[in-house]
Design a protein that fits this description.
heterodimer; A: about 375 residues; alpha+beta; PH-domain like; 2 domains; three-stranded mixed beta sheet; about 50% helix; B: about 400 residues; ten-stranded antiparallel β-barrel; 12 helices; globular; binds zinc ion
Chain lengths: ~375, ~400
């Protein structure tokens, strides 16, 4: 079989029309041209590779298997273009590894090393460096700025949950308000707090509560309705006060700002990718750290104890929440960011066993008023 | 050897669409990791479809090196962005007043813009690096193209020219276009031969004429409205002026491309010619957009129809999760098809048109050009991948 190919030696820009012939006995492709060194070159058929994803089906661009080199710029550069249809089909048939991609030695190790470094750097940033910096910097924010920021956060939350107009979602029943104030007074009388608390109830059916920077705390109507006793509400409130006093919310805001967008760097922008990123970032940044939760629990139990309230209520509320968890597969936020309800209920029960005499945090009339704060 | 080489493009829609679709599916299945290989394979196709004097171009980059470069880039970016954003939030909370919502919104806007300013130099840096990488991985007749290092120099100059363009309300745009292209062209090589960008930046003002006419119509409309208090004519003028301005911007880009190509010289001998026409470019874009738009309308219409017919089941909560998955798949597929179609019906025809409008003059001299040493510094465009700069291909 004889035909012509275009040969580039990879050293000069000159094109040589070489005569091609396949020697099936020696399994080689012979290239001959007077200007080639010694007049000819022999390419072993097993070492011939065709460039992949080549647009022109009627043509093959061939190279010889390169010595392994990770940097593709270093790969041997001689090229042979074959246009003759017969020669193209013969070479496709006779060259066993024509479509093979040669992967240089040590590739897997190199990928593993770099991927490990990249993942390590991200984990270190998101879970160690950013939280540590957030902890340090949170201390340097003046309290009045924190309060202003917290109010803005609450306002944003209110709008996000559907509150419109001047009054928004905040419940203003005067008797209920008085009961709530009584509860706060009872809880905080013995405590020495660094923030002035600003506790409100939102008219929303979600069983949830949240704290924002600078002493802002919001309880949802759903949570008050779900609670069996006022002491259960007091337990949640005390827990949120714990977050406020530890400045968890401020630290969280700083940490969330720092890690925003880091995940979308990795995943890139492919179909459906952005949705995954949003969900992952939410779970990453919306929750406090496990230690912060545990500390807020300890704070709440001690606050209940100092107020002479029964810490068992803290446990019974967790029981009723875990029941709720079983009933509804779509977890309310409070549950999803406050895991391990059973363990926490057990810890509260153990604490309650050592308590002395306790009295209900509100009387029946006050409790009834609090339940109607949104009507 | 001919003394003139006319660019030719052999790519067709069907195989490229197939390649795009296949690699996009693999990208989804690998949670995005395959995207480096996907981009490489599409480049290999487009490069190999381009030919001059019968000899195809070659893209010799690999997906693997792109992936490795990307892994390095995210380490640096994660540290830089993380620290910068956290500090910005700290300053935002402790200094900017947020007592009323108006101020809060303003503060947020400032913070977001600062965040863009932090990334902008990196994006410009990445832009140069991406072009350098592509040059280093492009071959014709076995001879490598190449580009000298200079990404930071480019980023700083680009920042300066962007600033100049903004404060002169776009008047100095030709200066920015010309000087930045010259910065890159003068550092470019084919083998051991160097490119040089000739010409003068003032010559590009001829290409700005339709931009000025469009702006003139808008301004005249506004003045007319103020003088006569007639809003109707001002509205008509605004619409006409806006469309004129948009077309004028395309005209400018085409004009600048032609001018800059005609004034490039390789090794002081080889010259180039380009004669793209604005009308043809707009036609490719408009036809492609209309066809894709109609197709997508049909596909999404069918999906919406299915949803509507099942809405009673969805409302009642009796719809099975399988139904939602069954709807999510065609939805994702429709997006993939749209992406593939825009590659095949807009990007590729544009490339074909540009390649075939170009001529290399005095091409005999190309025979004397020799291979250059490999650019070991032109490593893969990790930053460009991480920051998503670099455009369609
Ligand atoms: Zn908590």
């Amino acid at each position: 079989m004889q035909s012509v190919g275009r040969f580039f030696d990879g050293e000069s820009g000159q094109r040589l029309s070489v005569d091609l012939s396949v020697d099936t006995a020696a399994d080689t492709l012979k290239l001959s041209h007077p200007e080639l060194p010694m007049g000819s070159q022999y390419w072993p058929l097993v070492a011939i590779r065709a460039l992949s994803d080549h647009a022109r089906q009627d043509q093959l661009v061939l190279s010889l298997k390169a010595d392994a080199a990770l940097d593709s710029a270093l790969i041997v550069t001689a090229r042979l273009t074959v246009d003759d249809p017969d020669m193209v089909s013969i070479l496709r048939r006779l060259c066993p590894d024509i479509g093979r991609v040669d992967v240089p030695k040590g590739t897997t190790g190199r990928i593993a090393k770099r991927a490990g470094l990249a993942v390590g750097a991200l984990v270190l940033m998101i879970f160690v460096i950013l939280p540590a910096m957030a902890n340090t910097l949170a201390r340097f924010i003046p309290v009045e700025r924190e309060v202003a920021y917290g109010k803005a956060v609450v306002k944003q939350m209110e709008r996000f949950m559907g509150g419109r107009g001047d009054q928004g979602l905040t419940c203003t029943g005067s008797k209920g308000r008085a009961a709530l104030d009584a509860m706060i007074a009872r809880l905080t009388d013995a405590a020495d707090l660094q923030y002035d608390l600003n506790v409100n109830v939102f008219d929303h059916k979600m069983v949830n509560a949240f704290a924002a920077p600078g002493g802002q705390i919001v309880l949802m109507r759903g949570l008050i309705e779900r609670a069996k006793t006022p002491d259960e509400v007091a337990g949640v409130l005390a827990h949120e006060i714990g977050h406020v006093e530890a400045r968890d919310t401020t630290r969280n805001a700083l940490r969330a700002a720092g890690s925003a967008g880091l995940l979308s760097l990795i995943l890139g922008d492919f179909a459906g990718g952005s949705a995954v990123v949003v969900v992952a970032e939410y779970t990453l940044t919306a929750s406090y750290t496990r230690e912060a939760e545990a500390e807020a629990d300890v704070f709440a139990l001690e606050m209940l104890n100092a107020a002479g309230a029964d810490a068992t209520a803290f446990a019974t509320f967790f029981d009723s929440l875990s029941e709720l968890e079983r009933l509804t597969p779509d977890l309310p936020e409070y549950l999803s960011t406050h895991p391990e309800l059973v363990d926490r209920a057990a810890a509260a029960r153990a604490f309650a066993r050592d308590q002395g005499v306790t009295t209900p945090i509100l009387d029946d009339a006050e409790w009834a008023a609090l339940k109607k704060i949104c009507t | 050897m001919s003394s003139q080489i006319q660019g030719r493009y052999f790519g067709t829609g069907k195989p490229l669409f197939g390649l795009y679709f296949k690699t996009a599916i693999l990208t989804i299945l690998t949670l995005g990791i395959y995207r480096f290989w996907a981009k490489t394979r599409i480049r290999k196709y487009i490069w190999s479809a381009t030919s001059g004097d019968g000899d195809s171009f070659e893209y010799s980059g690999t997906g693997l090196e792109k992936f490795l470069g990307f892994l390095v880039a995210i380490v640096i970016l994660a540290i830089y962005l993380g620290l910068f954003q956290l500090l910005l939030a700290f300053i935002g909370i402790s200094i900017i007043p947020e007592d009323d919502s108006q101020a809060a919104i303003a503060a947020q806007a400032v913070a977001i813009n600062l965040s863009i300013l932090a990334v902008l130099p990196l994006m410009l840096f990445a832009q140069y690096r991406a072009r350098r990488y592509k040059m280093a991985r492009t071959r014709w007749r076995g001879i490598r193209f190449g580009m000298e290092k200079g990404a930071w120099g480019y980023a700083f100059r680009a920042l300066g020219y962007i600033f100049l363009t903004i404060i002169t309300l776009g008047l100095l745009n030709p200066l920015a276009t010309f000087r930045l292209e010259k910065y890159m062209a003068d550092r470019s090589w084919y083998g051991d031969a160097r490119f040089e960008q000739m010409g003068r930046w003032q010559d590009l003002y001829a290409g700005m004429k339709h931009v000025f006419i469009g702006l003139g119509i808008i301004i005249a409309g506004v003045v007319f409205a103020i003088v006569t208090e007639g809003v109707g004519i001002a509205g008509v003028a605004a619409v006409i002026g806006y469309i004129w301005l948009l077309i004028g911007l395309i005209y400018y880009r085409v004009y600048a491309f032609n001018y800059l190509t005609r004034n490039k010289v390789l090794d002081e001998r080889v010259m180039f010619d380009a004669h793209l026409e604005t009308g043809a470019v707009i036609k490719i874009f408009v036809v492609g957009t209309i066809v894709i738009g109609l197709l997508m309308a049909v596909i999404f219409g069918i999906i919406a129809g299915i949803v509507a017919s099942m809405s009673s089941a969805i409302m009642a909560g009796t719809a099975s999760p399988a139904l939602f998955v069954g709807l999510a798949i065609p939805y994702a597929l429709a997006f993939l098809i749209a992406g593939g179609l825009s590659l095949v019906m807009i990007t590729q025809p544009m490339i074909k048109y540009a390649v075939e409008s170009m001529t290399v003059l005095n091409a005999v001299h190309l025979d004397t050009i020799h291979q250059r040493a490999a650019d070991t510094g032109a490593d893969a465009e990790g930053f460009a991948d991480a920051l998503d700069v670099g455009g369609a291909i």
